[in-house]
Every structure is written in C-alpha cells, then in structure tokens.
Amino acid sequence: MLVTILTVAEIVYVVVLATWILFEKRPPVSTIAWILSLIALPYVGFIVFFLLGPRRLARKRLKHKRARGVARSAEPDKPVLAPVSSRGVDPRIVQLDRVAIGSGEPPADVCDEVTIFHDAASTYDAIEAAIRGAKHHVHVAYYIFDSGRAGSRLCDALVARAKDGVMVRVLVDDVGSSAMKRSMVDAMRAAGIKFARFNPVRFSRIRSRIDFRNHRKIVVCDGVVGFTGGINVCDDYVPELEPAPPRRLARIGAPSSGQGERKRRRRGHPGPWRDTHLRLRGDAVRWLQLTFLDDWLYSTGYLPREPEYFPAPTGTGAHHVQIVASGPDRDLEPIQRLYFAAIGLAQTRVLVTTPYFVPDDAILAALTTAALRGVDVRILVPRRSDSLVVTAAARSYYDDVIAAGGRVYEYQPTMVHAKTLVVDDIFSSVGTVNMDNRSFRLNFEITAVLYGKQHAEELAEQFKRDLRDSKEIKKRTREHLPLRWRVAEAGARLLSPLL
Q1: Which partner from 271, 312, 345, 356 sits 20 to 30 angstroms from 250, CA to CA?
Q2: Is the predicted pLDDT of residue 349 greater than 70, yes or no?
Q3: Among 126-140, 239-253, 384-398, which stretch is predicted with the lowest mean pLDDT?
C-alpha cells in the first residue's frame, strides 16, 4: 500500500512540475533536460531547480527587471529627440531604430561629440581627463577592475575627485573583478566613494550564477560625458608589466581577460591587447546613466534622484547614437535582434570584430545568408583567444562562413578584444558584446550604435589596418586540418550555448 501511494505521489509530482516547466517555454533541449533530471533525481532535481537553478535565476531576473523599471521612472525629464526618420536618412536606419525600440530599448538620441579610441592608452587618458573635469558626480561600472597598474591609476583619479567633494560611485562585477584587492576598496571607501559589487558570490562558489554577470563597461561624468566599449581596467592592455595575480574564480572556456602578462605570454599574446572604446558627449549619455542606475539600484537598493544626474536635454547634435542594453532581465534579446536585423539589411559589407566568435543559429544564418547574397562579409578574430575552448569552438564555425562566400581572418600580434560591427555606411556598433550566446542572452551587456557614414568609415579603416596584421583562413587550410583538431573543434562546439 505504501509503495503504491509513493508511486502515485511521484507520478503526480513529475506531472505537475513537468507541466510547470513546459509553460515556462524554455528552449526544447533545456526543457527536456530539466524534466528528465526531475524524473531521474526527483528530490535533488527539485532542490537544484528551485534553489540553485532556473527558478533562482528567474528571481534575480525579476529583481533586476523591477530595478530597471524604478530607475527609468525616476528620470525627471523626457529627452527632446531629433527622430532619425525626420532627417531624410536611409530608411534602413529608421527600421533598425524601430527594432531596438520594439525590443524595449530607447530610441536613437543625439550627441555633440563622438570619439572612437582604438587603444587603451588613449582611452585611459580620456577617462581620467573626464574624471578630473567632473563637477557633480562620476559613475563607474566595469566587469574587470583589477588592482594592477591600470586599476591603481584609475583608483587614484577617482579618490582625488571624491576628496574634492564629487560624488563617486563604483560598481564592479563580483566574479570579473575578484582580483581587486581589499586595500583598494578600502582606499576608495575611505575617500567617500560609494562602492558595490554586482551579484556577489555568497556561501560557495558553486552557488554563484556565472551566467548572471555584469559585462558592461560604463563611465559617466556629470550626466554629459560617457564612455563604453570593450576595454576593462586591467593590465592586459598595458605593456611591460609584472604578472598580475589570477582571479580566484574561472569557468571552463570563460573569457578571462585581466589575468595578467603571465597568462598572455603563455598563450601567445606578447603585447597589450587591441581593443576599441567610445566617448560620447551630449544627450545620448543619459541612456548610459540610466543603465548604470539600473545596475546600481539592483546591487545596493538605492537610487539617486537629484536632477543633477539628468541634465536637461538640448535636442541638438550632429551624431545619432542609440544606446542598446541587453541582459537576462529582458523579455527579448535587444542587441541580438538588432544585429540580426542590421546584417539582414546589408547591401555591400558586414565587418565583424570579436574576440569570441561563437554565434547562435540566427546570427550564423544572417551572416551566411548575407554572404550568399554577395555582401562582403568579413570576420576578424584573434589567432588564439584567452580560452582554448572558445578558440576551438570559434574555429568550428569558420567552415560555415567560408562555404557561403564570407572571409575569416585571425589577428596575429596579440589578443584582439574589440567588439565592433559595421554594416554598409549606415550602421556601426561599439560596445561590450561578444558574438556569442553568453553575451546575447546570459550576461548584462551594452553597446552604442552609431548611425551614419562617418563612424562606419572610421571603424572600417581600423578594420583594414587590423587585417594587415592578420592571416586569412583559406578553405584549403580547413580541408587539411588534422583529425585531432577536428575532434577538438567538434567537441568544443557542443559547449557553444555555454560559451
């Protein structure tokens, strides 16, 4: 009798939970995997699902989504926009603007100045100059903020402004910035800097959600000057340094920039990394500000509401810029959808620079279809990224691109960490987004979309300069690939959804 009762109870348990999981409309593979785990390990599966797995992540998503809604409602004035549709521009720009808006992101705004940096030295100089010029506040958010020379330099600049009475807030990702020394944090707090960690790791490293990381890089000064792009605050960008201590937490195949010169040399990266960053001045900076405040409210429970954080928009500026953020709190994938739409609208060229090329099915289809249409599709990746698993997975996609008529290049001198996309003369993007599933769906990311020819040409010229230091991967090279590498690539490709 007892056995019968337990059997019936288990059947009811499995049916109820399976129905619940089905109604959550997860990807089919994920849905089947969770249902099978609940059947095979009913009690363990229940604990993992509700306490450590998707349900816990869903609660964090909801918390961040609520924080984003509160932060957006606190904005004192709506911007006076100059809609891209009113300027007689290419109608494709209007369509792309609408894709982002339809995905829940703000419309294109205007900027007085847009400056693109192609190296860390000029980026750090510009950020420090903006910090020195700040009068009211400085907001800083980084995935990696290490305690090496680059980190100490920025820390000193922030401490100096805080001592002068400027409000300084610093937000770092707890996993990405795990190498930040306690002494640096103490120095910041002693100077009056408000410091917080995004999604801290608690109790056990096993419990941390490594797919709920804040990969954004944002600096905002007085709500008028803003920075974003691929450059972290770490010594991978600074030449001739002693090895930096490795971070205490790493995942298999994870991008691990910031672990120092020792790892870079061991994996064939002898010099500072090549990266791209962006400085904005004007109305569009308010959207960087709001994104920072989303994350600050989520991390601290506090939201500054003074009007000084949102200077009155001017509605003037020669540059159309659209700030697009994405993350697991979004119902859609704004950046992935925008990239998909932009590549699909390409007529002449698609230039992709990414350190981690592990595209999902939609982006791979968009790239290969564009190449089949006769569009000049070129992909630039590092010869070897800072993850051997990611390198192997990325190479497994070369054949698809090359077979469709696209071209793939590997950057030789060092690690190329830039994340840029150029489509024709209408669309260019500089941000934190890698061409992989983790960036599109699992991490919090941000990118600045620059509409118009000027910036597309500048990024295209840098792309050409990078090609001079790159090697094209030919079809015949791929055909003669040793069996052991084919097996390694095929195995790494199975991990693509996690990379």
Answers
A1: 271
A2: yes
A3: 239-253
Q: Rounded CA gap, 416 and 352, in Å?
A: 12
Give yes or no for residue 269 having a pLDDT over 60: no
Instruction: Work out the number of other CB atoms within 10 angstroms of the CB of residue 454.
Output: 14
92 within a domain of the structure (yes/no): no
- Determine the structural domain holding residue 405 and report its residue range: 325-498
pLDDT at 70: 61
Kindly list the distances between the CA atom of residue 67 and the CA atoms of 284, 454, 483, in Å, as whole numbers in the listed order: 21, 36, 50
Let me know: does 432 contact 232? Beta carbons within 8 Å. no
* pTM (predicted TM-score): 0.83
In this structure, the answer to whether residues 262 and 248 fall within a common structural domain is: yes
User: 185 with 290, same domain?
Assistant: yes
Residue 209: what pLDDT?
47
Same structural domain, 286 and 409: no
Domain boundary at 15, 35, 52, which?
52
Amino acid, res. 111: C
For residues 221 and 138, the answer to whether their CB atoms sit within 8 Å is yes
Q: What is the mean pLDDT of the chain?
A: 83
- Number of domains into which the chain is organized: 3
CATH of the domain at 494: 3.30.870.10
Question: 69 lies in a domain?
Answer: no
pLDDT(260) > 50? no
Sheet of strand 113-117, all strands in order from the earlier edge strand to the far edge: 113-117, 277-281, 225-229, 218-221, 137-142, 167-173, 194-198
Question: CA nearest 107: which of 282, 229, 284, 280?
Answer: 284
Residue 73 lies in a domain: no
Q: How far apart are CA 295 and CA 68, in angstroms?
A: 8
At 129 the pLDDT is: 98
The pLDDT tens digits for 396-429 are 899 999 999 999 999 999 999 999 999 999 999 9
Distance between CA atoms of 478 and 326, rounded to whole angstroms? 35
What is the average per-residue pLDDT within 250-266?
38
Q: Which runs of E-coded beta strand occur in 160-291?
A: 167-173, 194-198, 218-221, 225-229, 277-281
Characterize 437-447 residue by residue with b for buried, 16 or more Cβ atoms within 10 angstroms of its Cβ, and e for exposed: bbbbbbbbbbb
- Note whether 326 and 336 are within 8 A (CB): yes
The residues that are catalytic are: 215, 217, 222, 417, 419, 424
Closest CA to 309 of 135, 133, 136: 136
Higher pLDDT, 252 or 465: 465
Asked if residues 48 and 207 have their Cβ atoms less than 8 Å apart, the reply is: no
Would you give the distance in Å from CA 125 to the centre of its chain? 23
Question: At which residue do the structure tokens 């056990």 appear?
Answer: 204
SS3 323: strand
